[in-house]
Amino acid sequence: LPAVGGSEGVGRVVELGPDTQGPAVGQTVLLPPGGGTWATHVVAAAARLVPLPNAADPKQLAMLTVNPPTASLLLSDFASLQPGDWVIQNGANSGVGSYVVQLAKLRGFKTVNIVRRESAVAGVEGLGADVVLVDGDDLAERVKAATGGAAIKLGIDAVGGKATMRLAACLGEGASMVNYGALSGEPCVVSPRELVFRDVCLKGFWLARWFRTTAQQKQLALLTELAGLIAAGKLSAPIQATYDVAQIKEAVAAAAAGERQGKILITPSHA
Amino acid sequence: LPAVGGSEGVGRVVELGPDTQGPAVGQTVLLPPGGGTWATHVVAAAARLVPLPNAADPKQLAMLTVNPPTASLLLSDFASLQPGDWVIQNGANSGVGSYVVQLAKLRGFKTVNIVRRESAVAGVEGLGADVVLVDGDDLAERVKAATGGAAIKLGIDAVGGKATMRLAACLGEGASMVNYGALSGEPCVVSPRELVFRDVCLKGFWLARWFRTTAQQKQLALLTELAGLIAAGKLSAPIQATYDVAQIKEAVAAAAAGERQGKILITPSHA
Fold first, then answer.
1. Which bin fits A153, alpha (ψ -120 to 50), beta or left (φ > 0)?
2. Would you call A165 and B180 a contact, using CB atoms and an 8 Å cutoff?
3. In terms of residue numbers, what domain contains A261?
4. Cβ contact (<8 Å) for A180 and B191?
5. Cβ proximity of B155 and B176 under 8 Å
6. Is A155 helix (H, G, I), strand (E, B) or coil?
7. Where are the beta strands (DSSP E) in B138-175?
8. B59 vs chain A: nearest CA distance in angstroms?
9. Within this chain, do residues B84 and B200 fall inside the same structural domain, yes or no?
């Protein structure tokens, strides 16, 4: 300390250093992670700035670094899905969950989306979800009824606790399940009935490890693909409110409150 | 009903049907599963009889079909282990657990073995275990101390409940865990800490599926390899007592009792 907060964001190049090769002045770029993004001006190495579509909504681009790649990789790296295949997720109204619905639809997958409160159903349906259900004890039967008994190939768990077990019970034999969060605050619970007799496996996903272990070129390819979808208006997240850095206390309080309808963003005061 | 009980066992060929090609009279053979093995005489298709070493102890061979292949496949199909690598299992004094210790030693792997009572430690140590510990809350630290902090590549869980979570915490980053039973009667509990941040995955194993989905030739190769190890005295399970089929009530009571020191076998009355 002192340190600048913020782990993701975008900027526009206002000046290049002397003899610097880099994105042209005026170019929208992704800010390098780790340097702090809640700032009006950032000094960064030109080579670390990823160019982004100038025409896209900077607020939507600002959310590019964490949730969209998480959603994309959850859908691609844990099961071999073909168009028409079913995916099920819980925490479907979360940031990642919203991108999962949209990316699945773009790739031709069908989604069953589980939320924890009735008031979250309509928002997820509005993103293009095929099925949205409120979690509960008879979940597997309700999912079966809603999908016509389809063998669901991938389960995405953001909740943990017995919600993991309920999700596993909805999957087809040999399906994969991946956990990336514990909204319940509890460890995942999975029955040997699913693991042993129905060959379901449980893995975990952590974006930080993916960035650490994946070639730079592959990372750029994914971010560029996702930025293109955002620029084309095909991928977005609802924004509840934007705050200036000076209003950081109010912003954090709004982000921490339950029943949000979208993300809380910090914008530089001159924006 | 009526049905003949017993799902595994061996016999000796006493007679071949007319024009039957099959194992010679006097040959020890594995009895076909599903036909009932608690019998003095069994009629079976010659092609379904797997020849076994005549010189081996028939009581040890009689235990060939379920626990030894389970132990072998748990060690081979869920992690790529090299000699010198560490494996950890709980329920280590169970039938499967005993074979895991012996097979791991034969393959050059080191084992950490977790049991649920102090009185089971000596028996597992006697099988050639490298480390034997009683389960408890500080398990990961005690394992670390006993192995010098080795990165354990495979965890084998027979217990479920929070024992699964304690086992997962002992594993190295990126390790695999496989569950094949729930001695605790509880579903597996795994922390996202292990799944997400330490890239541990949890799978299940069911021998019945392996037999159903694996080529006959590969099944025979495994059973023949294991029968050879049994015949050579390199693989065995402790036997607590043998009973005649007529004593089946006493046998079942003995098998159901806790604190057993070995298997309960049924032998034909003329044996």
1. alpha
2. no
3. 238-271
4. no
5. yes
6. strand
7. 154-157, 160-161
8. 28
9. yes
Question: pLDDT tens digit string along B68-83?
Answer: 999 999 999 999 999 9
Q: Which residues of B touch A181 (CB under 8 A)?
A: 192, 196
Question: Which regions in chain B score pLDDT beneath 50?
Answer: 271
Ramachandran angles phi, psi of A170, nearest 5°: -85, -15
Q: How confident is the prediction for chain A on average, in pLDDT? A: 92
- Mean pLDDT split into 10-residue runs, chain A, 271 residues: 79 90 91 79 86 91 94 98 98 96 98 96 96 96 98 98 98 98 96 96 97 94 95 92 88 83 79 46
**In a shared domain, residues A56 and A96:** no
Q: How far from the centroid of its chain's Cα atoms is residue B7's Cα?
A: 15
Identify the three-state secondary structure at position A219: helix
Q: Do B189 and A189 touch (CB under 8 A)?
A: yes
CB A182 within 8 A of CB A162: no
- Are both B154 and B196 inside the same structural domain? yes
B86 token code pair: 């560490």
pLDDT in tens, A70-101: 999 999 999 999 999 999 999 999 999 999 99
How far is Cα A28 from Cα A269, in angstroms, rounded to an integer? 18
Q: Contact at 8 Å (CB) between B196 and A205?
A: yes
Supply the DSSP symbol for A14.
-
Cα angle at B207 between B202 and B208, to 5 degrees? 120
Residue A170 CB burial class (10 angstroms; 0-12, 13-18, ≥19): buried
**In this structure, are A149 and A229 located in the same domain?**
no
Q: Considering only the beta carbons, identify the residue of A190, A196, A206 that sits closest to B205.
A: A196
Residue B89 phi, psi dihedral angles, 5° rounding: -140, 150
Task: Give yes or no for a contact between B76 and B226, defined as CB atoms under 8 angstroms apart.
Answer: no
Cross-chain CB nearest to B190 (options A181, A198, A202) = A202
Total count of domains within chain A = 3
Q: Does B188 sit within 8 Å of A187, measured CB to CB?
A: no
Cα–Cα distance for residue pair A228/A235, rounded to 1 Å: 9
Give the CA distances from residue A222 to residues A63, A80, A103, A215, B225, in Å, rounded to whole numbers and listed in that order: 14, 18, 13, 11, 48
User: Residues of A with CB below 8 A from B204's CB?
Assistant: 192, 194-201
CB pair distance less than 8 Å for B200 and A204: yes
Which residue has 């034909």 as its token pair? B268
Tell me the chain B residues in contact with residue A203 when contact means C-beta distances shorter than 8 Å.
195, 199, 201-202
Give contacts of B200 with chain A, Cβ < 8 Å.
204
Q: Give the tokens for residue A249.
A: 């206390």
Are residues B121 and B41 part of one domain? no
Report chain B residues whose CB lies below 8 A from the CB of A77.
none
User: According to the model, what pLDDT value does residue B1 have?
Assistant: 64
Q: Does A190 lie in the same domain as A98?
A: yes
Task: Give the pLDDT of residue A269.
Answer: 64
What are the DSSP E strand ranges found in A83-138? 86-90, 110-115, 131-134
